[in-house]
Design a protein that fits this description.
alpha/beta, 13 strands, two-stranded antiparallel sheet
Length: about 300
C-alpha cells in the first residue's frame, strides 16, 4: 500500500477521533527471530485503507487511521511497552480517544485444556502473572506450595472486563469462519486433552499476562492456581501485553471500552513424552503463528466492522 500521509499532532487543528483503536503488539522490525515470523500489523494494512498517520510522542509507532474511524498502532512487546503506548495515545494532543473502543488483536499461547491451535479467545478477565511471591522449594514440591499472592498488594492484579461488551463482541464473532492447516492438525494429535485435539473455535476466557515466555506443566499448574485465587476462572491464553494495556486504560477509567482478542499459536506445555525445552524450541514456528494471526484478524476485524457501523 502507498505510504500514508503524515500528520504532526501540533499541526492538527481538529483532533483525530477514532471509533476504535486496534492495538497489535508488534510490526515488522519490532522483533528479531531466527525464523521470519509474520507480524501482527500486516493483515490490517492489507485490508483497511490507513491513508494517514499521526505522530504520537511516547508511543511505540505512529498511529495510522482511516477516514471511517479505524486507527491502529503497535504497542511494542511486553506490559511496560503496552502501558506506555496506551498512555501516550490517551494524552496525545492530536488524538481524541474519549469515545473510542480499544481492541488488542494478536497472538497467544494457550492451555491445551482450554483450546487449540488456531482458536481465538475474547478475554473476560486479564490477570498479571508476574506480581506474586515465590521461594525455593525442593524438586518434589508442588508448584503452588512455593508461591502466594503478594501479601502487601494494594489491590488484586486482575481486571474483569465489561461483561456486556465481551458478550456483544462474542455474539458478533462467534460465527466467523476460522481457517486450519495440516501442520496444526498433526501437532494437535500429540496431545491427549479433548480441547487441544479439536478444531479451532471462537470462545471467551481469561488471559494471563506476563513478561516471561514460560513453558511447561509445572508453570501451568502455578498459572492455574494464580488465576483461581483471583476468582478469574480458568485461564485460556497466555500473552505479554494485555495487563499493561488494561492498567493504562484503568488510570483513565476506560476499561469498560477494552477488548482483547487472541489467536492461539502454541500450547503452554509439551505433549506427553517431550520435555518442556523441546516444546519451547520446536513447537512455535511461522506456520502456527500465521494460523493464529489469520484467525485473530478474522475475529478482530469482524468486531471492528461492527463497532464502526
Amino acid at each position: 500500500m502507498p505510504a500514508p500521509t503524515r500528520d504532526d499532532p501540533g499541526d492538527v487543528a481538529t483532533p483525530v477521533e477514532p471509533d476504535v483503536v486496534v492495538l497489535p503488539a508488534f510490526a515488522a522490525g519490532d522483533v528479531t527471530a531466527e525464523a521470519d515470523l509474520p507480524n501482527e500489523v500486516e493483515p490490517w494494512l492489507d485490508e483497511y485503507a490507513f491513508d494517514r498517520e499521526l505522530a504520537v510522542p511516547g508511543a511505540n509507532a505512529p498511529v495510522r487511521y482511516t477516514d471511517d474511524g479505524v486507527a491502529i498502532t503497535p504497542t511494542g512487546m511486553g506490559k511496560a511497552d503496552a502501558a506506555a503506548t496506551v498512555t501516550a495515545l490517551l494524552r496525545a494532543p492530536g488524538l481524541d480517544c474519549s469515545d473510542a473502543a480499544f481492541l488488542t488483536v494478536g497472538i497467544a499461547g494457550a492451555s491445551p485444556e482450554a483450546g487449540t491451535l488456531g482458536s481465538v479467545f475474547i478475554a473476560d478477565h486479564v490477570v498479571d502473572w508476574d506480581r506474586k511471591q515465590r521461594w525455593d522449594g525442593t524438586a518434589d514440591d508442588d508448584p503452588v506450595e512455593t508461591m502466594r499472592l503478594l501479601p502487601y498488594r494494594p489491590h488484586d492484579y486482575a481486571y474483569g472486563l465489561d461483561d456486556d461488551f465481551v458478550e456483544r463482541a462474542y455474539e458478533w464473532a462467534s460465527d466467523v469462519a476460522l481457517c486450519d492447516t495440516e501442520r496444526a492438525r498433526e501437532h494437535r494429535e500429540r496431545y491427549s486433552q479433548d480441547a487441544a485435539r479439536g478444531a479451532p473455535t471462537v470462545a471467551v476466557g481469561t488471559t494471563l499476562c506476563g513478561d516471561e515466555f514460560w513453558h511447561g506443566a509445572h508453570h501451568a499448574e502455578a498459572a492455574r492456581w494464580l488465576v483461581d485465587r483471583y476468582d478469574a476462572g480458568e485461564y485460556a491464553t497466555t500473552e505479554m501485553e494485555d495487563f499493561g494495556t488494561a492498567a493504562a486504560l484503568d488510570r483513565f477509567d476506560r476499561t469498560e471500552s477494552y477488548l482483547s482478542v487472541r489467536g492461539v499459536v502454541n500450547f503452554d506445555r509439551p505433549p506427553e513424552g517431550r520435555t518442556a525445552r523441546e516444546g519451547i524450541d520446536e513447537d512455535l514456528d511461522a506456520a502456527t503463528v500465521e494460523l493464529g494471526l489469520e484467525n485473530a484478524f478474522r475475529v478482530g476485524s469482524r468486531i471492528v466492522d461492527r463497532l464502526v457501523e
